[in-house]
């Protein structure tokens, strides 16, 4: 999968994509990342990428011109590389809330572009022209789209085949089956007077699977009943309690 990042701060993104599971995906060639800096596409000698909002108000906006030239060049390069037009995703609090279902949709695509805004955001006309979907990682405001873009990249990368070892496969994750994850324990079996639930030491794989499923359902009920409510369209089809 190809990931293109459009950002004024690519140096914020690159190190995050070089470590851990995502770093391994990059090393293995399962992820190919490209960085595009709108500041390299400014037409004025001060290399200005922002300006004041029409109608007044605080803060600055990203100018459409450098972003447009940047996107046009990126799309030319993608075409030359034989990549189909990839949807441009704009990270913003006004976007569709990211969840595991959206992560799965995105990870099935051959390429996505993540457009990271700064300041108070981007001129609306640039978004109208180029953006396929706005995505939000949650109901809070950040100073740039880079951290949300990394959240999307990480969540998508761990869905790609052969990226996680089978022991920690994406199928085991919280939300993979619409439920929260069960608790986990490692050595020692007793730690500071606290014991590991005995069933996990029993060697009875069926009993362990049953216990984990029951714990997942209990936790989901206690912490996120919204995930189980009957009017929730993303309610898991089989929770094991039916
Ligand atoms: C995305 C972008 C929050 C999110 C952002 C989010 N803040 N909740 N800030 O996913 C335009 C300039 C948006 C700063 C950006």
Describe the strand arrangement of the main beta sheet, using strand numbers.
2-1-6-5-7
Oligomer: single chain
Helix coverage percent: 25-40%
Count of individual helical segments: 7
- The total count of strands amounts to 9
Instruction: Give the topology string: H per helix, E per strand.
Output: EHHEEEHEHEHEHEEH
The end-to-end distance, rounded to whole angstroms, is 38 Å
- Helix/sheet category: alpha/beta
Q: What is the residue-mean pLDDT, rounded to a whole number?
A: 94
Number of domains: 2
Brief digest:
The chain is 31% helix and 15% strand. The chain has helices at 10-13, 20-27, 64-80, 100-107, 124-130, 146-157, 205-223, and strands at 2-6, 32-36, 50-51, 61-62, 88-97, 111-115, 133-136, 190-191, 194-195. It has a five-stranded parallel β-sheet with strand order 2-1-6-5-7. Strands 3-4 form a two-stranded antiparallel ribbon.
């Amino acid at each position: 999968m190809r990931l293109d990042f459009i950002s004024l701060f690519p140096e914020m993104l690159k190190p995050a994509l070089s470590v851990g599971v995502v770093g391994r995906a990059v090393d293995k060639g399962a992820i190919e990342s490209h960085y595009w800096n709108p500041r390299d596409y400014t037409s004025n000698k001060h290399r200005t990428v922002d300006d004041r909002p029409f109608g007044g108000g605080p803060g600055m906006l990203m100018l459409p011109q450098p972003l447009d030239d940047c996107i046009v060049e990126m799309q030319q390069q993608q075409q030359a590389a034989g990549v189909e037009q990839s949807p441009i995703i704009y990270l913003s609090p006004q976007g569709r809330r990211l969840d595991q279902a959206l992560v799965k949709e995105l990870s099935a695509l051959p390429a996505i572009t993540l457009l990271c805004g700064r300041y108070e955001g981007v001129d609306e006309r640039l978004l109208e022209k180029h953006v396929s979907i706005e995505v939000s990682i949650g109901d809070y405001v950040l100073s740039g789209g880079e951290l949300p873009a990394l959240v999307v990249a990480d969540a998508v990368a761990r869905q790609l085949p052969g990226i996680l070892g089978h022991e920690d496969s994406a199928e085991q994750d919280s939300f993979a089956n619409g439920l929260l994850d069960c608790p986990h324990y490692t050595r020692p079996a007793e730690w500071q007077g606290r014991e590991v639930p005995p069933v996990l030491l029993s060697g009875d794989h069926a009993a362990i699977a049953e216990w984990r499923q029951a714990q997942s359902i209990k936790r989901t009920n206690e912490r996120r009943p919204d995930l189980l409510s009957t009017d929730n369209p993303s309610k898991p089809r089989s929770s094991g309690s039916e």
